[in-house]
Specification:
Layout (H helix, E strand, L loop, with lengths): L3 E3 L11 E3 L7 H8 L7 E6 L12 H9 L5 E6 L7 H12 L4 E4 L3 E2 L5 E2 H4 L5 E4 L7 H9 L3 H7 L5 E5 L6 H5 L4 E4 L10 E9 L2 E10 L2 E6 L10 E11 L7 H17 L3
Parallel strand pairs: 1-4, 2-3, 2-5, 3-4, 5-8
Antiparallel strand pairs: 6-7, 9-14, 10-13, 11-12, 11-14, 12-13
Helix pairs in contact: 5-6
Length: 274
């Protein structure tokens, strides 16, 4: 990823449009920012270690920045606020010094600088600014609330791309295998929200191939049973797209009752793909 740079280590850049934002999941409100560029080359400025945004996110930092990469920006600049939480004028001066944007595109509610004291009107004193009105419909908070309540269907309608959970497949207790339904297990990032506990209709992406799956989420662990898949993928990175919440998980008294519960859920979810 040669086009990702620390905000304070940029030597020279072409004077391109600059899109600024945190971008925790690219939703259709964000897309309006990029649509206004009309296929021009552009740069992105985003942030890490933002106060009050260290956890309870849609995506961990690495996934969020990888998502921005798919938009094909000329450069992505990252400002680490734990190291450089500027006063408002220092932020402005550094933009002029390091990035030199031809103009800036951002949401109408954008705030910047220490204690969020700077706003769009202040930036307009120094840069040509294009703002996109932020509507409540596409707020990231609303999308997260849908996911927390299990309504991933509605969340995906608001997101520009479906909600994905990615991670490295880890060894677990192999309970799924003992039950006859082996699962690929990934731990949820401590940075992110946990979708509502229960079972889901889902797709699992393995080596860029999309497989129908039954997914179970609980205790910050995602377990994906990929139908008719028997390869060893421990240590591989997979991504899971939650399509629809299926049912909450009930406590069971013994192995046999758990086996019956899992069997019924898997068969019910598998039938939705047929």
């Amino acid at each position: 990823m040669n086009n990702i740079h620390d905000f304070h280590q940029v030597k020279t850049t072409a004077e391109l449009p600059l899109v600024i934002g945190f971008f925790d999941g690219l939703h259709k409100g964000h897309w309006k920012l990029f649509q206004s560029l009309k296929k021009k080359q552009f740069n992105i400025l985003t942030f890490t270690n933002v106060p009050n945004k260290s956890h309870h996110l849609l995506y961990p930092d690495n996934a969020r920045i990888a998502d921005l990469q798919t938009l094909n920006p000329a450069n992505i600049f990252i400002l680490n606020l734990k190291i450089h939480n500027h006063l408002t004028m220092a932020f402005v001066d550094n933009l002029r010094k390091f990035i030199k944007p031809s103009y800036i595109i951002l949401g109408s509610d954008f705030r910047f600088g220490k204690q969020r004291r700077g706003d769009v009107n202040q930036l307009k004193q120094f840069f040509k600014i294009k703002t996109v009105k932020v509507t409540p419909t596409y707020k990231t908070t609303i999308i997260k609330n849908y996911i927390l309540k299990g309504n991933v269907t509605m969340a995906n309608k608001l997101l520009f791309k479906p909600y994905l959970i990615s991670g490295i497949v880890k060894h677990g207790k192999h309970i799924g295998r003992k039950l006859g339904y082996p699962t690929a297990n990934i731990k949820l990032s401590p940075q992110t929200i946990q979708p509502k506990e229960g079972s889901y209709q889902a797709y699992t992406y393995i080596n860029n191939v999309k497989y129908p799956s039954a997914v179970f989420i609980r205790n910050h662990l995602l377990e994906s049973h990929v139908f008719k898949f028997h390869k060893n993928i421990y240590g591989k990175i997979i991504s899971v797209e939650l399509i629809k919440y299926h049912h909450r998980m009930n406590k069971t008294e013994n192995f046999t009752s758990l086996q019956n519960v899992i069997k019924n859920k898997v068969e019910s979810i598998q039938s939705t793909f047929e």
